[in-house]
Task: inverse folding
């Protein structure tokens, strides 16, 4: 039985004038049809690069996929021809981007841009495509969708623009929707609205969703599984409830401790000591070990692979399989 | 949109006034008596006096200024001081040749420059780009009139494919006479347009919405010509407008190279012959052209960029 | 594209960008301009013959061992005329922009410092001048002042000074807003001292680039004005008026015009390349 999306040891390198940067270093995960996965990590951990790699949208002068496999519906994305990729993009796989202010083309109306997706992938007259665009805008909760479709992006607010981008992504009913920090650039109140919208759309369309964010709170209500990324690789992968209830990897634990909460009275928010390693001084072995209070000798020399059960795994030498399985059971 | 045009036209008025004032003052700075310059050193005092009276040069400065401005605005440029012909008639005869030349050159510049510039951007750092850099470097450095002389020597004098001088009579002959001058100015403009297109396109191709278009499955040629170029046209048009002015003033020298009738010929002839009124008229018309081109460029930009007028 | 994880692995696997091309341009540009300056300075001593020496017998001859560039219609040696012409073209081509820079930077600093009406007046005037093509301005000023060497210099200076004004104005405005400026004023320093100390170093780089590029423009402008008969007057040789003279007999004797024009092109090319290369060095973000 093929999963909808299988990512296997994906590596993306950035070739810059000052050296080669390993942006994504051996990332693997699976996504079943209709399921949703949250990829969580701080800035620079490689999550956006991973997302762009899935659609082969990496900016090609600096970035290149140097290893691994991506299989969508059993089809190898890495080997796909440009023509095949163009067929898939927008129709089977679609993406929502971070900054709604720059995602849309300023010289075309919103409706035109959405209709373009329809005309590219389905045989439709311009009028029919435009009507589909209006309908899509209505589906994402925009009032007066007809007026909005005729408007230009600069005439809409940030929240409306992001809704339009979501409409554009969903109009051809993709099987996979990748959302790269869809709420980061928006006001907090608008954030909540967009997340609500995504919840509704997830239920209505049955599309698989990959939600990328640096904010753990965002994924809580929205996804089935979470993959936590740090410094280019996945350090923990588990169902969302397990991640919150019993995080296995020290980094995940640190992240959760650092979240402000109404229940705990704190004088200071706990932080994870140290900083993300700089490219020139990447620690050997486990990338997190300099900041980790569970670090042992082995952590310094050998990078841990993802260990544990398929449902809940973590890349940490300090955890035995037993501890991981316990974590899974206690969370259930 | 209509409101925008109106606003821009209103803003023109102080500029036009300023320009007229500058031209007026510039000519009054000239040392020496225009009457003597026109009539010669041995003219009698009576002749000089009547000459000055005829041209209103005996009036106080502010009166001269007022009559100058009111005449200019109404398009009445008076008579040539040298041979008494109506300047308006001369302008009507010669201006079309200049406009023709500037238009043809612009057409060549755009038709050649934009595709080459797009090629240089898309195949960046490869052959088309390298060729483009060299072409641009030479195009920016060679004086337009020298290029015209070279073309003249090669294609007219040696090969005899094109006539050597004049503006030509009638449509076909006129076009025949137009080719070399237009190519002279057009090629130089093409170099500029090409660089402009290349950098504008490169800048636009970096934008997020181009990535969005790829993510929708838009084929690559569409991305360049529909999504990117349309946005790139905004800075290209602005640059083009500025360069059009350079081309316009380039007609002055090129008309001399090819002995072609036009506004530049009138102006330079007037300066050399000390034809006061002719020079005045020539400068005013040129200045008006400059103002007009600036306005047209702005309007064109407003047409292309919906953000400008729809606020 | 902020999500760039940074782990440098192997600097040796780096691809070098086209830094070498840039270096070539600098070298060629610098060589060309230096050669020209040398020719201009040493002119009378390296010209093999008197540029004003006419000879009926030797008129309109093609290049030969005796006359490397041939002779013009008056029998004058074209090679010598081109060499001496370098002096006129470079003298005007350098003086004009330098004057423009002096006036422009000064005016720009005033405008940027005092703001208000000073700024508005100067800026409006400068914008108006800039909206005119340089040749047209030059012609206008030549019409007002009469043709000649000095006219060309003044015409170029007036045509170019708005650019320098803009440069200095925006730099001064930036500096003016800095908090330490208020401290300096409170400590008793005058605006002149502050401007010299803080603004000047900031604009030095852009100024050099601008100067180099505008010198190229100035040389072209001088050539055009001389070609139109409004600049350097014959018989003094200037590249522009050599082409003008040469127009009389292009069929029989294209050599004066051809070589003079080539000289103009090389001079402009040299300063353009120098300016481009300098700009690449000082402003590497611009990909032009």
Result:
């Amino acid at each position: 039985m093929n999963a909808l999306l299988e990512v296997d040891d994906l590596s993306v390198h950035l070739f810059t004038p000052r050296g080669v940067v390993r942006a994504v270093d051996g990332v693997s995960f699976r996504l079943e049809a209709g399921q949703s996965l949250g990829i969580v990590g701080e800035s620079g951990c490689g999550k956006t690069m991973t997302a762009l790699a899935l659609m082969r949208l990496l900016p090609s002068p600096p970035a290149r996929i140097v290893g691994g496999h991506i299989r969508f519906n059993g089809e190898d994305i890495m080997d796909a021809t440009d023509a095949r990729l163009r067929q898939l993009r927008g129709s089977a796989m679609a993406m929502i981007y971070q900054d709604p202010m720059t995602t849309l083309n300023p010289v075309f109306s919103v409706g035109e841009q959405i209709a373009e997706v329809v005309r590219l992938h389905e045989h439709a007259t311009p009028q029919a495509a435009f009507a589909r665009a209006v309908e899509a805008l209505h589906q994402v909760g925009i009032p007066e969708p007809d007026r909005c479709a005729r408007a230009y992006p600069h005439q809409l607010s940030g929240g409306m623009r992001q809704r339009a981008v979501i409409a554009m992504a969903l109009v051809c009913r993709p099987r996979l929707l990748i959302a790269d920090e869809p709420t980061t650039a928006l006001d907090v109140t608008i954030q909540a609205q967009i997340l609500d919208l995504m919840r509704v759309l997830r239920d209505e369309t049955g599309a698989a969703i990959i939600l990328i964010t640096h904010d753990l709170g965002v994924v809580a209500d929205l996804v089935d599984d979470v993959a936590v990324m740090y410094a280019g690789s996945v350090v923990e992968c588990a169902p969302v409830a397990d991640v919150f209830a019993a995080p296995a990897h020290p980094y995940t634990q640190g992240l959760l401790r650092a979240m402000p909460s109404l229940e705990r009275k704190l004088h200071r928010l706990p932080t994870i000591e140290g900083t993300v390693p700089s490219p020139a001084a990447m620690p050997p072995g486990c990338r997190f070990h300099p900041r980790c209070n569970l670090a042992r000798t082995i952590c310094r020399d050998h990078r841990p692979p993802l260990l544990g059960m398929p449902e809940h795994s973590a890349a940490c030498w300090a955890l035995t399989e037993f501890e991981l399985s316990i974590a899974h059971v206690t969370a259930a | 949109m209509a409101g925008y045009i109106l606003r821009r036209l209103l803003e023109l008025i102080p500029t036009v006034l300023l320009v007229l004032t500058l031209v007026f003052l510039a000519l009054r700075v000239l040392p020496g008596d225009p009457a003597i310059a026109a009539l010669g050193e041995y003219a009698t005092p009576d002749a000089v006096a009547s000459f000055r009276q005829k041209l209103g040069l005996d009036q106080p400065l502010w009166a001269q200024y007022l009559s100058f401005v009111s005449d200019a605005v109404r398009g009445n440029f008076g008579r040539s001081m040298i041979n008494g012909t109506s300047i308006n008639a001369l302008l009507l005869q010669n201006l079309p040749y200049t406009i023709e030349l500037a238009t043809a050159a612009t057409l060549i510049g755009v038709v050649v420059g934009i595709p080459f510039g797009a090629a240089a951007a898309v195949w960046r750092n490869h052959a088309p780009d390298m060729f483009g850099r060299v072409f641009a470097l030479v195009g920016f450095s060679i004086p337009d009139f020298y290029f015209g002389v070279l073309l003249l020597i090669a294609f007219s004098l040696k090969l005899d494919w094109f006539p050597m001088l004049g503006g030509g009579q009638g449509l076909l002959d006129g076009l025949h006479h137009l080719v070399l001058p237009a190519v002279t100015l057009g090629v130089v403009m093409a170099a500029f347009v090409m660089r402009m297109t290349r950098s504008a396109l490169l800048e636009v191709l970096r934008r997020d919405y181009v990535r969005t278009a790829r993510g929708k499955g838009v084929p690559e040629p569409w991305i360049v010509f529909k999504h990117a170029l349309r946005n790139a046209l905004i800075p290209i048009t602005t640059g083009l407008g500025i360069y059009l002015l350079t081309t316009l003033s380039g007609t002055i020298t090129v008309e001399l190279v090819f002995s072609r009738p036009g506004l530049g010929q009138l102006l330079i002839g007037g300066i050399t012959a000390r034809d006061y009124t002719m020079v005045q008229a020539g400068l005013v018309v040129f200045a008006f052209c400059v103002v007009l081109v600036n306005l047209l460029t702005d309007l064109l930009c407003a047409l292309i960029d919906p953000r400008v007028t729809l606020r | 594209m902020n999500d760039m994880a940074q782990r440098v692995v192997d600097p040796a696997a780096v691809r070098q960008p086209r830094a070498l091309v840039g270096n070539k341009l600098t070298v060629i540009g610098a060589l060309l301009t230096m050669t020209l300056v040398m020719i201009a300075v040493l002119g009378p001593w390296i010209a093999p013959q008197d540029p004003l020496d006419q000879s009926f017998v030797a008129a309109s001859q093609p290049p030969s061992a005796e006359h490397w560039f041939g002779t013009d219609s008056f029998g004058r040696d074209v090679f010598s005329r081109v060499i001496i012409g370098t002096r006129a073209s470079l003298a005007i081509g350098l003086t004009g922009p330098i004057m423009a820079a002096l006036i422009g930077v000064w005016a720009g600093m005033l405008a940027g410092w005092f703001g208000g009406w000073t700024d508005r007046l100067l800026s409006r005037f400068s914008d108006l001048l800039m909206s005119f093509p340089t040749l047209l301005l030059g012609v206008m000023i030549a019409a007002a002042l009469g043709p000649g060497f000095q006219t060309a210099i003044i015409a170029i200076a007036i045509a170019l000074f708005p650019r320098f004004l803009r440069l200095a104005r925006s730099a001064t405005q930036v500096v003016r807003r800095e908090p330490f400026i208020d401290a300096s004023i409170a400590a008793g320093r005058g605006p002149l001292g502050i401007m010299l100390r803080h603004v000047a170093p900031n604009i030095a780089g852009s100024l050099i680039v601008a100067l180099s590029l505008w010198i190229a423009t100035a040389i072209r402008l001088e050539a055009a004005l001389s070609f139109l008969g409004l600049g350097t007057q014959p018989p003094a040789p200037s590249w522009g008026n050599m082409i003008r003279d040469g127009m009389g007999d292009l069929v029989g004797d294209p050599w004066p015009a051809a070589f003079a024009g080539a000289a103009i092109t090389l001079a402009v090319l040299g300063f353009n390349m120098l300016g481009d290369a300098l700009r690449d060095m000082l402003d590497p973000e611009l990909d032009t």
DSSP finds 13 helices and no strands in chain B. The radius of gyration of chain B is 24 Å.
